[in-house]
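Data availability (excerpt). The following record was deposited with the supplementary files.
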Amino acid sequence: MKNNKIKFRFFTIPQWRQEEQFLRREHNNGWKFTQLNALICYHFEKCEPEDVVYQLDYNPDGRTHKAEYVQIFRDCGWEYLQDYAGYSYFRKPAFKMDGNEEIFSDNSSKLDFMRRVFKGRILPLISIFLCIIIPQMLFQLHLKNIYGRIFAGIFAGLGVLYLILFLQFTIQFLKYRKTQK
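Predicted structure:
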């Protein structure tokens, strides 16, 4: 019987909650998350099925004081797993949690998380969108050949994907901000 498995999954920036739920479901089914690699392959190893909560934090500044950063979570009972693309992965058995416990203690810390993600991940994407995708799409549209039209279509498709990503993130951010008030 196989003791390891790999699953390919892609989650967009605003889908960290879905990623946490995916990891929790896998653990409930007897597959403990061990690592995520650059090819977006989730590695799991066989384990006893257990309800384990997975949480992600986005804190690229935590790398400068990694030991202290991880120790804060350990002191609260969270197991540090790894860092990937600025996100830190943690888990904790559900039976060790107090109610609806999260690594974010309140709505303001959730908003801080969202702001860190916005500054670290969304702002660079907006820059790429404004400085590369839109100018290239417009440039390709002015070419009078089929290749220009094809590339304009590709850049337009990328533009639509970017807009969907921005809208998802903005909606989530506004929901958290609304609960703050």
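Summary of structural features: Residues 104 and 110 are 6 Å apart (CA to CA).
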